[in-house]
């Protein structure tokens, strides 16, 4: 994959925005509420699947090497063994899926963006919930059921995720046409 300087800047921008989103944290249990998941969605809708996934991979690497970019200002290799790390892995898949679907769909409307972001958000949970369950049970020694993992790692977040999806869809439908008009992103 050939990547332009402009796209590299966008990759870095979305990695940085995800890190900033992690600083706005409401600790409610093993997985805090943050604004992080807004930025894989926006990246997918704005810069396409490969670059969006790359932005989230860069974010993950920055955290693993020790920069305090994860929720609560944490980072380091030990972050791999936290219950919320699966969600960070899910950001990569989410950004890619959202970017891929939005490229296939073509011109995005608000409603299309909402549906695409719902699918992308489910990708985060597809990896995050099993990871949460495994870490809590096998690493931290807390015996929980998969039902309880769903409750603390998914159901609790639905209202906030709906709000974030609406905000992301609104923003992207305002920004994407402007960026295309200025040739800052590719036309689909």
Low-confidence stretches: none
| Backbone structural class | mainly alpha
Quick check: average pLDDT?
94
What is the N-to-C order of secondary-structure elements (H for helix, E for strand)? Answer: HEEHHHHHH
Instruction: Please count the beta strands (DSSP E, at least 2 residues each).
Output: 2
Strand order of the largest sheet: 1-2
Query: With helices defined by DSSP (H or I, 4 residues minimum), what is the helix count?
Result: 7
Q: What is the approximate shape?
A: globular
Instruction: Determine the strand fraction and express it as a percent band.
Output: under 5%
Oligomer: single chain
Question: Whole-Å distance between the termini?
Answer: 17 Å
Largest sheet: 2 strands, antiparallel
Overall radius of gyration:
16 Å
How much helical structure, as a percent, in the residues? 55-70%
Describe this structure as you would to a colleague.
By secondary structure, the protein is mainly α. Helix content is 68%, strand content 2%. It has seven helices and two strands, in the order H-E-E-H-H-H-H-H-H. It has helices spanning 5-23, 38-47, 49-64, 85-105, 110-139, 146-153, 158-181, and strands at 25-26, 33-34. A two-stranded antiparallel sheet has the order 1-2. The protein is globular and about 55 Å long. The relative contact order is 0.15. The model has no long low-confidence stretch (mean pLDDT 94).
């Amino acid at each position: 994959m050939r990547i332009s300087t402009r796209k590299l800047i966008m990759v870095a921008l979305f990695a940085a925005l995800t890190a900033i989103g992690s600083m706005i944290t409401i600790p409610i249990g093993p997985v805090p509420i943050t604004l992080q998941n807004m930025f894989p969605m926006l990246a997918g809708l704005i810069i396409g699947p490969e670059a969006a996934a790359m932005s989230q991979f860069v974010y993950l690497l920055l955290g693993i090497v020790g920069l305090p970019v994860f929720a609560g200002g944490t980072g380091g290799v030990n972050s791999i063994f936290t219950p919320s790390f699966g969600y960070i892995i899910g950001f990569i898949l989410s950004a890619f899926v959202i970017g891929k679907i939005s490229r296939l769909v073509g011109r995005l409307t608000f409603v299309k963006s909402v549906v695409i972001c719902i699918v992308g958000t489910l990708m985060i949970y597809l990896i995050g919930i099993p990871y949460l369950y495994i870490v809590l049970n096998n690493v931290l020694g807390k015996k929980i059921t998969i039902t309880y993992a769903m409750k603390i790692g998914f159901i609790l977040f639905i209202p906030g995720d709906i709000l974030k999806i609406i905000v992301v869809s609104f923003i992207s439908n305002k920004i994407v046409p402007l960026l295309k008009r200025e040739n800052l992103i590719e036309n689909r």
